[in-house]
Design goal:
Number of helices of chain A: 13
Structural class of chain A: alpha/beta
Structural class of chain B: alpha/beta
Shape of chain B: elongated
Radius of gyration of chain A: 18 Å
Helix content of chain B: 25-40%
Oligomer: heterodimer
Strand content of chain A: 5-15%
Strand order of the largest sheet of chain B: 8-5-6-9-21-18-17-20
Number of strands of chain A: 8
Helix content of chain A: 40-55%
């Protein structure tokens, strides 16, 4: 069985956290998926959409739709937030434009968040990961409530050998990122971030897992400012670890033995 | 920094430790209470939630029809119905009813001062519409005295503040502040004991209820099929103001309708659970008419003012679904922004107050009062979706916040009329410019790659060594966090260097499937075997008392109860509405039967129309020989209930034909209570503090 997907890496992973993108590719490859990366991709347009700038968001949406229309393969997005944008945001943007609406809906129908693709589309909960540490999970808002994906990442994490999953207190609370919000309302964002980091501290978990790079950058930036170790990782980075005691080294992934 | 009053209010709120402690306690307790309350629903929450959404959506879609039906029925029942297009009209209708319309400039003392020479006294129970039209200020300006009687509203009024939450007006205060306020305004010794504070308010307000010339209330739901007003309260003040004063005025937003009693039962299964975590509120009143010809209490006049004030024009617009709101406040409690800033911080661009804070407030304030000034509230959200998840009628609040940001909240009601020039509502020019530049780069892969390269270079200049860049506070981001340095090598570059073998065979051996992974199931709650047992346990959980008896042991049971409390005088329903011979045998044992309106009498004896087992609710309808005050004024309410009248749930209870026509029906679930001070439950506020239900075989 050979499956091919198109990876929509998201602008945040592409520009700020490429290690997560590499991990996504390696995990997918390990379970037999061929990964393509259309080089024309940029940003889904969510920042403009959330700011209420629909004209700008529409331009970016059209660019993204065109980019991924060239190939009929499913689109896998390692972000709940960007998946929600394609699934719910695009149809809203093109509600009055039947041509673009049907193109947006066609793309949305074959777009999947990374963990959703593994669990629901491929039926896989064990990707052969090994990570002998305590981990805690931050369910990002748009993943959890935007597209209703929660059991999928939890199932994948439950099958990581050696990992001890501890529940994050008030896990479902927003970290205070919210895109432009974190810049426009820095004081509120700061208070929300403080709650999130102190809940994280209360778990003693050395690693915090999330499926969204926005939350990851936000919480890590907060931890660093508080002179604590930035240690939020993308779920693909955990799923990609397969060697005892040496997490996150892609080179070692294939040599793990169970 | 910005001169916007919104930012100033946010800053002040975050810097206030008392407020922060109060808001944290509110969020933690209310959210948990709501979740716990939903475990006792008869059907899955999501089923009820979607049904409630459909009922409300259909009602709003056919609002003209239902309003017509509702008004016709209400008028046929003897209610005086007024329509107010805006706040000013609504205020003037109240003033006119009070006989004190300013332009009439009356010198006739008898009109203004119905009772003696003091200013006209208006006892108010909680109504957010009254806050919306700023009624108290108008009444005071006209020389009238409005007194808030909901404990939270009363505290806020004494302090000269506005409510900071649509359900719990004093949620921003701690007991110390309430103690100081009562010490200063009511002259009681300084205390932080919540029952003592509640008693002080009870004592102060009892006189208000008895002397008020007008009782003014809100309306939770209007029931179109019978013209009923449904009013939900816990303390009993709602019953007082709608029963004791000679005139009752109800203020209602025009969208607050449900078509039928079944729909009402559905809403009542969601509203109190969402609002306060109660299965049902203590008092759910269903009011149809003014005092009947042979009734001994109830207002002689009932007025209903139906307010538009911008609601009708929201229909059919992208903000249409804001009209589905049933004002439970769950979205406020769930909102992480509300938790940080509280209700008073939600202000317009010129510092204007809005009575509607939180997520729903950030939609309806721009919707009703204009997005020019209130549109900025919609930017104070991370779109985290906690509000939508908490909403018992599944309103897409994040979706509507986005539409306000995009300037789509067209005033004309012509659907999704685009106004691109007003996009980015509430954002500063610099942010919009940045996003325009980003768009320009992002629609071209070449420009995007160049921008990435520039960002990486800039990042290395700002932070040559460390992975994280220390941005200054003025950037917004740098206020509380550092920013990771853009990668020297982007993912798109790295991808080109990655191998792409089709399979890793070794790993595949360990691939499992979803089979065998169980979705967690909640076990359905065990129902009590019989209705009477269930009624008993629910009533007891509400701090009510349950006594099983027979017709023979009934009077002895009541006598024991009265003797234990040293009571020898009670007020009572007429003997025709009680088990035969009951009053006779009580009187033979030395109990005197006093007038129903005597406030000094400590116990009231009533029958009951029926009960709902799964919420511990009694239905008590008024009528000739069944005064409402008997179950309201005394400290102790004794009700005689026939076992066969216990129904399964509220929906079945509401099918008693009597409820659909009685002047007023009180659905009573336990003794009166409040949690308006620090959410600490206190039993016995304005209504009875003891409820005894004697169930006869």
């Amino acid at each position: 069985m050979s499956t091919t997907i198109q990876l929509f890496a998201t602008c945040l992973i592409d520009t700020l956290h490429p290690a997560a993108g590499e991990a996504v590719v390696k995990v997918l490859q390990r379970v037999g998926v061929e990964v393509e990366f259309p080089q024309a991709q940029t940003c889904c347009g969510q920042p403009a959409f959330n700011a209420g700038m629909h004209a700008e968001a529409r331009k970016m949406a059209q660019h993204t739709i065109t980019t991924f229309e060239a190939d009929p393969a499913p689109v896998v997005v390692p972000s709940g937030s960007c998946t929600a944008m394609l699934r719910h945001g695009y149809p809203e943007l093109f509600a009055d434009d039947p041509t673009w609406l049907s193109r947006a809906q066609a793309l949305a129908a074959r777009t999947f968040e990374f963990t959703e693709y593994l669990v629901d589309e491929m039926g896989i909960v064990d990707v052969g990961a090994y990570f002998p540490h305590k981990i805690t999970y931050h369910p990002s808002c748009h993943l959890l409530r935007g597209i209703g994906v929660d059991r999928q990442p939890r199932a994948l994490l439950a099958h990581v050998r050696g990992a001890e999953l501890v529940e994050l207190p008030a896990a479902e609370e927003c970290c205070g990122f919210g895109g432009v919000f974190s810049v426009e309302h820095p004081e509120i964002s700061a208070e929300m971030l403080k709650r999130k980091t102190s809940n994280i501290e209360s778990t003693d978990a050395p690693v915090i897992v999330t499926c969204d790079t926005g939350c990851l950058l936000h919480i890590n930036g907060g931890l660093h400012r508080q002179e604590k170790r930035p240690r939020v990782v993308h779920i693909a980075e955990i799923l990609n670890t397969t060697l005892l005691q040496k997490p996150f080294t892609a080179e070692n992934a294939e040599s793990a033995e169970f | 920094m910005s001169q916007n009053p919104f930012h100033a209010h946010i800053h002040k709120a975050i810097a206030n430790p008392v407020l922060q402690a109060a808001l944290d306690a509110n969020a933690d307790r209310r959210v948990q209470a709501r979740k716990t309350a939903f475990t006792t629903l008869e059907e899955p929450l999501e089923v009820l939630r979607q049904r409630a959404h459909s009922v409300r959506a259909e009602t709003i879609a056919q609002l003209d029809h239902y309003l017509e039906q509702f008004i016709a029925n209400a008028q046929a029942n003897g209610m005086i119905v007024h329509r107010a297009a805006n706040a000013e009209e609504a205020v003037n209708i109240v003033l006119k009813i009070a006989g004190n319309l300013p332009q009439r400039n009356t010198k006739d003392e008898s009109v203004v001062h119905l009772r003696g020479s003091r200013p006209l006294l208006i006892a108010k129970s909680k109504t957010m519409v009254s806050e919306e039209i700023n009624l108290n200020a108008a009444l005071e300006a006209a020389g009238l005295t409005p007194v808030e009687t909901d404990l939270g509203e009363y505290i806020v009024q004494l302090r000269g503040e506005k409510p900071s939450h649509i359900i719990t007006p004093a949620v921003h205060l701690r007991r110390e502040e309430v103690g100081e306020t009562f010490h200063e305004k009511l002259g009681i010794p300084l205390t932080t004991d919540i029952p003592t504070l509640t008693d002080a308010a009870r004592a102060a307000l009892r006189q208000t209820f008895l002397e008020a010339d007008i009782g003014l209330s809100g309306v939770n739901f209007g029931v179109a099929e019978s013209g009923a007003l449904c009013i939900v309260t816990n303390e009993g003040n709602g019953r007082m103001v709608t029963t004791l004063p000679p005139v009752h005025i109800a203020l209602m937003g025009m969208e607050r309708l449900v078509p039928t009693f079944d729909d009402l039962a559905l809403m009542l299964s969601l509203l109190p659970r969402s609002a306060t975590g109660q299965k049902i509120s203590v008092y759910t009143q269903i009011i149809h008419a003014p005092r009947g010809a042979n009734e001994s209490d109830g207002p002689a006049e009932r007025h209903l003012i139906i307010l538009d004030n911008g609601r009708a024009k929201l229909r059919g617009t992208p903000l249409n679904d804001a009209l589905l709101c049933i004002r439970c406040g769950a979205c406020l409690n769930a909102c992480p922004i509300f938790r940080e800033i509280g209700g008073h911080a939600y202000v317009g661009a010129l510092g204007e107050h809005t009575p509607y804070p939180g997520p729903i407030g950030s939609v309806i304030s721009p919707g009703l009062f204009g997005s020019a000034n209130f549109g900025q509230l919609a930017q104070a959200s991370t779109l985290c979706g906690a509000c939508k998840e908490a909403c018992p009628v599944d309103i897409d609040l994040p979706g509507m916040l986005l539409r306000i940001r995009a300037g789509l909240d067209g005033k004309t009601g012509d659907g999704r009329r685009r106004k691109e020039n007003t996009s980015g509502v509430g954002l500063p020019f610099s942010v919009k410019l940045g996003l325009k530049a980003f768009t320009w780069a992002a629609v071209s892969p070449g420009r995007f790659r160049l921008a990435q390269k520039l960002a990486a270079t800039f990042g290395r200049i700002l932070s040559p060594r460390a992975e994280q860049i220390k941005l200054p506070a003025f950037t917004g981001w740098g206020f509380s966090k550092d920013m990771v340095r853009p990668a020297a090598q982007t993912f798109r570059k790295r991808f080109k260097k990655m191998d792409n073998p089709s399979i890793g065979e070794k790993a595949q051996e360990h691939v499992g499937t979803l089979a065998g992974w169980q979705v967690k199931k909640t076990t359905p709650r065990q129902q009590d075997s019989t209705l009477v047992n269930q009624f008993e346990s629910e009533l007891i959980s509400l701090s009510g008392n349950f006594t099983p008896c027979t017709t023979e042991t009934l009077s002895d049971a009541i006598l024991t109860l009265l003797n234990e409390r040293g009571i020898d005088e009670i007020m009572s329903w007429n003997e025709a509405h009680l088990p035969a011979g009951l009053l006779d045998s009580l009187q033979r044992a030395g109990i005197r039967i006093g007038q129903a309106d005597q406030p000094h009498i400590r116990a009231g004896l009533t029958g009951a129309l029926g009960a709902a087992a799964n919420t511990g609710t009694l239905a008590i309808s008024s009528g000739t020989g069944r005064p409402q005050s008997v179950s309201l004024l005394p400290q102790i309410h004794i009700a005689v209930l026939n076992k066969s009248d216990i129904k399964k749930n509220l929906r079945e209870l509401l099918q008693f034909p009597e409820i659909r026509k009685a002047t007023s029906t009180a659905l009573i679930s336990g003794p009166s209570r409040t949690a308006d001070i620090e959410m600490t439950l206190t039993i016995g506020v304005h209504g009875p503090g003891e409820l005894h239900v004697l169930v006869t075989q």
